[in-house]
Amino acid sequence: MHALALLQSPRCRRTFHEPAVPPTFQSARCRLGFSLGLWLVCVLGVAQPSETPAPAVGVTAGGVPGVVIDHSPQSSGLYIGSPGLTVLPGGDYLASHDFFGPQSKEHERATTVVFRSGDRGRSWGRVARIEGLFWASLFTHREAAYLLGTEKHHGRLVIRRSTDRGATWTEPQDARTGLLTPEGEYHTAPVPVVVHGDRIWRATEDAMGGTRWGSRYRAMMLSAPAEADLLDAAQWTFSTRLAGDPQWLGGDFGGWLEGNAVVTRAGDLVNILRVHAALPERAAVVQVSADGKTARFDPATGFLRFPGGAKKFTIRFDPTSDRYWSLVTAVPERHAQDGQPSRIRNTLALACSADLTNWEVRCLLLYHPDVARHGFQYVDWHVDGADLIAACRTAYDDGQGGARNNHDANFLTFHRFRNFRALTMADSVPLPEQPVASAR
Fold it and tell me: How far apart are CA 409 and CA 374, in angstroms?
């Protein structure tokens, strides 16, 4: 039996209009309801690589989980990274990603592409290609869309704005038009942006603490008045920059990165970061002062158990459930011996917490038994009524050699997890027998 046929949640019901297409992966209690009438006559019906003009896409095809927004085969040497997702004031969705890999210009002037959906994620069309943007957060603020990231791999921080639903974007030419740092090296990812205490907050890292991945990153927080012109660098406050210590966690601390700006129950702003270490996976909680100028960390109390903490994650608060939620790239027990947790990316799980300290995995949403060349990672997501919508950097089979590995993804996919607040482990996708291959 095809492996995908084993991954159907018992509570999942297909509502496709074309029964003759290949079996399609379904996530936990999701009812995609998307027509496959647009299924393409090519082998997998995926989008053209985004280095060429892309038509409207967004079909579910060839077993790839979710709705394909973009596809770039490994033969192109262009891998899909940094998925971003936002909902515009009029209800349209925007999604974005960048390219990395040997044929990209990530170390010179990186490329990001933007897609728009006018039908709540059923179909997507590319609307913009941006040169000079990498690792960017896509967010909506005061009726405009923004992308905040770096100009390239370990480049300067930049921010761009669009007021026409993502079609055109400002150019960060100087400190008044979005160039936030005149020099230096920075690292970041599509991390959440929050408004709190009349300020807008976003975590990042300076990459000037050496040359070694992980240990070179120094945690920091950016903030600006919520009513300010966000393209004006003078409006932004940078917190103190905190370096990690390799002696933390009994000498197992390998670095922290890709932090989340989160408001605690007490109304404080904290930065919750991914931690590079062995199992059990952890996150680090950095305290940030109300004025955004000071960051501090206590290694005796600042680490917490966090499922998927060795990979990038996004935490958001949901007022309806009064809970913090995250989509995490977790490591099921069956894969605990398959390599470093940062390299195990084949399981996407829904997790929640009432207090940001104690986290519970509520449901396994996406899974593939192979850990070496399949991955669901760097997921950006938002609450949409009773549902949770997400954009995922997906490494998966495509009929063209598949992904190079679980990290070097070949798809950007969209997912809608219906009635996410009610999901439990009983709704999880089943876990069939895994192959021998590992991520070591």
Answer: 8
Cβ-based neighbours of 107, under 8 Å, separated by 6 or more? 152, 153
* Number of neighbours of residue 281 by Cβ within 10 angstroms: 23
**252 vs 38: CA distance, rounded Å:** 50
How many residues are present in the chain? Answer: 440
Residue of 198, 196, 212 lying closest to 262 (CA atoms)? 196
Q: Locate 18 and state its tokens.
A: 């074309």
| Tens-place pLDDT, residues 94-120 | 999 999 999 999 999 999 999 999 999
* Half-sphere exposure in the Cβ direction for 421 (13 Å, CA): 14
Q: How far is CA 8 from CA 29, 366, 377, in A?
A: 10, 10, 20
pLDDT at residue 12 above 50?
no
Query: Cα 313 from chain centroid?
Result: 6
Does the reported pTM lie above 0.90? no
3-state secondary structure of 390: strand
Q: Comparing C-alpha atoms, which of 177, 121, 114, 119 is closest to residue 140?
A: 114
Residue with tokens 């009773």: 386
Half-sphere exposure of 238 (CA within 13 A, CB side): 15
Residue carrying structure tokens 């020099």: 183
| Domains along the chain with CATH numbers | 3-427 (2.120.10.10)
Cα-based angle 357, 362, 368 (whole degrees, multiple of 5) = 115
Is the Cα torsion angle 278, 279, 281, 284 positive or negative in sign? negative
Distance between CA atoms of residues 238 and 223, nearest Å: 7
